[in-house]
Design brief:
Strand order of the largest sheet: 3-6-7-8
Radius of gyration: 16 Å
Number of helices: 5
Helix content: 25-40%
Oligomer: single chain
Shape: globular
Structural class: alpha/beta
Largest sheet: 4 strands, parallel
Length: 171
């Protein structure tokens, strides 16, 4: 059973490094992913462009070379196949005209491409039920190294399978 305890105001560390004072893009490069309750639309920016830029920013931070277009598309299509997503999503504007479930799946694709160590998912029940989201998370991280923190209103109580890597935050 998951451990439950109240935590007051505290410093936030990831891999021994304080991250609560960092800018969001810096936290992302360090291995943290934040999924929003209502992912925003970014008209004029397609998914492929955003994802490739994000992946290459993280790779640069890690001292690795950038992925070229061919390598990126191969990786993106592999991740999309695992997630059961249509590759046409890559050519669409970021969340533009997406349903709630499509927006959540698009966020999970972003998470899969960035391979974070910690994913904080806000209101995961908006647009995608928790069981579907956890199944997707299992596909994204089959080896169990990803820690998922879900922020919600009690919807995470009693979920199974990822208990050792799932933290539920509620008020």
């Amino acid at each position: 059973a998951p451990l439950t305890r109240e935590v007051g105001r505290t410093d936030i560390f990831l891999n021994g490094e304080r991250v609560d004072g960092m800018e969001p893009d810096e936290r992302a490069r360090k291995g943290m992913f934040l999924g929003f309750q209502y992912p925003v639309e970014i008209p004029g920016v397609n998914n492929a462009y955003l994802l490739k830029a994000a992946v290459n920013a993280k790779r640069k931070h890690q001292g690795l070379g950038e992925v070229d277009a061919f390598e990126f598309l191969k990786l993106a299509r592999e991740k999309m196949k695992v997630l059961g997503m249509d590759p046409k999503f890559l050519n669409r504007g970021v969340n533009e005209g997406f349903s709630g479930g499509e927006k959540k799946r698009n966020e999970i694709l972003q998470m899969a491409m960035l391979e974070p160590e910690l994913a904080i998912l806000d209101e995961t029940d908006s647009g995608l039920d928790i069981d579907a989201l956890l199944e997707i998370a299992r596909r994204v991280d089959p080896h169990g190294g990803l820690v998922v923190a879900g922020v919600g209103h009690g919807v995470l109580v009693g979920v199974g399978g990822l208990d050792e890597h799932l933290v539920a935050l509620a008020h």
